[in-house]
Amino acid sequence: MLLALAFGLAFARGEGLVGGEPVADGSPLARQTVALGWRGDAFCSATIVAEDLVVTAAHCVRNSHDIEVLFETDTVSEKNPRRRPIVGYELAPGYDPDDEHPERRDPPPRNRADFALVRFTGGLPAGFNPAQLVPADHVFHDADEIELAGYGGTFDHTTPNDPVGILRAGHARLRDARFSPTELQIDASEESSSHNAGGDSGGPALVRIGGEPYLFGVCNWGRVGEFTVFALVRPRLAWMSEAAKRLRQHHGHADCSTVLR
After folding, report:
1. Which is nearest to 35 in space by CA: 47, 53, 21, 49?
2. What's the pTM?
3. Among 26, 91, 130, 150, which has the highest number of CB atoms less than 10 A from its own CB?
4. Where are the beta strands (DSSP E) in the chain?
């Protein structure tokens, strides 16, 4: 649901999607999913949540400079991709940038706060719009089928002409819907689905309601062939509201008031 407010891969490090298929240009998913890039080369995924804001994984943007939002389903073939400069970001409270290899820890770490709100300037290109957030009363269950999207190559890199920078989507199932108060765990095993996807760092996890995609998570990290952890968006809404105010005040206020709720 969208509301106007008065503001006055993944595997670890975005290895890519498993079994993902290219997303059609102009589809609802393509109009809300973007790439983060440097000099036109995509390295992470993100989702539009306002006319000047995207959400992604914190590890995608920490210590990053001169990065851009890329508005193309294929950033590889497009020689002059539509782009917007990033002017600031905030990392979710509790994120530890020194925790670089959660996939090596056992038991798996929880509540890592690998979540960031990123501001860009220049507005949205024509045809793009903020994502819809899954309704507050939506209940997730283990084994629910969900959809993932991102700009990583297929994970095993066995597909010919499979570069990073092409928007793909695939299906997966929830492995643990109660992994933590702020996270879900996706089943990334080959047995979970014939169209299994593992996610791409910063990319969205979605459910389809009435045929339309609804955002609920952001891809964080995982173990190859086992699971992927996604940060939930809803638990961050209050922080996102305050972070958006700070980003707009510090970097100049745009006439943008639509954010997720």
Report:
1. 47
2. 0.88
3. 150
4. 2-4, 21-22, 33-38, 41-50, 53-56, 68-70, 83-91, 116-120, 132-133, 145-150, 168-180, 183-187, 204-209, 212-223, 227-232, 258-260
Neighbours of 195 (CB within 10 A): 15
Residue 19 CB: number of other CB atoms within 10 A?
A: 20
Structure tokens at 168: 């793909």
Question: How many angstroms from the chain centroid is the CA of residue 211?
Answer: 20
CB 39 within 8 A of CB 178: no
Q: What letters, b where the CB count within 10 A reaches 16 and e where it falls short, cover 199-227?
A: bbbbbbbbbeeeeebbbbbbbbbbbbebb
Per the domain annotation, does 2 fall within a domain?
no
CATH assignment of the domain containing 195: 2.40.10.10
Is there a domain that residue 236 lies in?
Answer: yes
| Within-domain flag for 106 | yes
Q: What would you report as the CA-atom Rg of the chain, rounded to the nearest whole angstrom?
A: 17
Give the DSSP letter of residue 125.
P
Structure tokens at 12: 């670890």
Peptide bond into 107 cis (omega under 30): yes
Strand pairing of 132-133 and 212-223?
Answer: parallel
For the chain, what is the domain count?
A: 1
| Per-residue pLDDT at 259 | 52
Q: Domain residues for 39?
A: 9-254
Average pLDDT along the chain, 261 residues, taken 10 residues at a time: 28 48 93 92 94 97 90 90 95 94 94 98 97 97 96 59 82 96 91 58 96 96 92 98 95 52 48
